[in-house]
Amino acid sequence: MEANKVLDAKGLACPMPIVKTKKAMNELENGQVLEIHATDKGAKNDLTAWAKSGGHELVKHEEEDNVLKFWIKKG
């Protein structure tokens, strides 16, 4: 999955991954994709809910070596 911007939120606890995601998303144009790397297990539910409530699309997510990776398309 090709991302327009990558956000490193590893080692951050809730709510910081969401705060940083929101800030990074504001820098993107509609239709662009933000890739987020997080280690907070709560990030999966948080980012899924945040994307939906903000009109964005969670395109994909996966876990690799205890790092959660998300791709969110700006709506």
Automatic annotation (TrEMBL):
Organism: Pseudoneobacillus rhizosphaerae
Protein name (database record): Sulfur carrier protein TusA
Pfam family, one: TusA
Family the UniProt entry places it in: Belongs to the sulfur carrier protein TusA family.
TM region(s), chain numbering: none
Listed CDD domains: SirA_YedF_YeeD
Gene for this chain: tusA_2
Every UPF0033 domain range: 7-31
Signal peptide: none
